[in-house]
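Internal tracking record. Fields below are filled automatically when a chain is submitted to the structure queue. Please do not edit lines marked as system-generated. If the sequence contains nonstandard residues, flag them in the REMARKS field before resubmitting.
Queue: standard
Priority: normal
Entity type: single polypeptide chain
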Amino acid sequence: MVGEPNERGSVSEKIVRSNSTVAVAMVLGSCTSLQIGAAFAMKLFPTMGAAGVTILRLFIATVTMGILVRPKVLAWTGLQWRMVTLFGAVLGGMNLVFYSAIARIDLGAAVTIQFLGPWSLPRCRPNVAGRKSGR
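SYSTEM-GENERATED OUTPUT FOLLOWS
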């Protein structure tokens, strides 16, 4: 019967294992993309500056996602447009700050500082429901 466990594990265990593999692959792909993009961006700074490179990166990302995902933007509600616009502005600001940093300091140092934020957040939360705080 579908969904019944077998000698190799339950169906839900296989789904979790599959989803975990996809998640790890997506994180590694994101990290690789960030590094490659930053390395190319550094070569463009002398001619385009940090703001120009940010605009170019966002344009390329918009076109790529538009081709791959093909969202039905004509059917979006006003709230969806506001959220997408806000998300785009936040990504643009984040990229501008990051590219401004790597225009001034070493790429490795800038990437390390960028990863410290997400890495440190779970370690700073208070001990909730018996979980370890990471300290």
